[in-house]
């Protein structure tokens, strides 16, 4: 049985914050089961890692927890947040900064996870 999970988020963008909470909750659930978890942000979803973007966006109208709160909770649980370099070049302005905790991993890194029998993958 695998105890490693890599999640790719590409379609859940800041324009649709309600779509982002599901992969983040799945990541937290995997950590609760003691799995090693990393989240790869690709395409326009890399914008979640831009400083300040996630803090003011909420998945629900009741605004009980921002996407930024989820990201901070994931970081507290040692989940790795990874930005695709191509996505960063396309979707992050030179004047913007990514969260200092964000690492880098491109398409090859995620594909390698899908091919590695020690890892399970989810795509959102």
Description of the structure:
With 124 residues, the chain is an alpha/beta fold. The protein has a single domain (4-123), classed as 3-Layer(aba) Sandwich (Hypothetical Protein Ychn, Chain: A). It has four helices and five strands; from the N terminus they run βαβαβαβαβ. It has helices spanning 21-32, 67-76, 85-91, 107-115; strands spanning 4-9, 36-41, 80-83, 103-104, 120-123. A five-stranded parallel beta sheet has the order 4-3-2-1-5, with helices on both faces. α2 (67-76) links the parallel β2 and β3 (80-83). α1 (21-32) runs parallel beside α2. It is globular, with a radius of gyration of 14 Å. It starts with a strand and ends with a strand.
In brief:
This protein is an alpha/beta fold.
User: Segments where pLDDT lies below 50 for 5+ residues?
Assistant: none
Q: What is the rounded Rg?
A: 14 Å
Query: Number of domains in the coordinates?
Result: 1
**Mean residue pLDDT:** 95
The proportion of residues in beta strands is 15-25%
* Gross morphology: globular
Fraction of residues in helices? 25-40%
What is the H/E string?
EHEHEHEHE
CATH superfamily: DsrEFH-like
Known CATH architecture: 3-Layer(aba) Sandwich
CATH C-level class: Alpha Beta
Oligomer: single chain
Distance between the terminal alpha carbons, to the nearest Å?
A: 23 Å
Note the total helix count. Answer: 4
Find the CATH topology. Answer: Hypothetical Protein Ychn, Chain: A
Question: Main β-sheet, in a few words?
Answer: 5 strands, parallel
> Which strand order does the major sheet show?
4-3-2-1-5
How many strand segments?
Answer: 5
- Secondary structure class reads alpha/beta
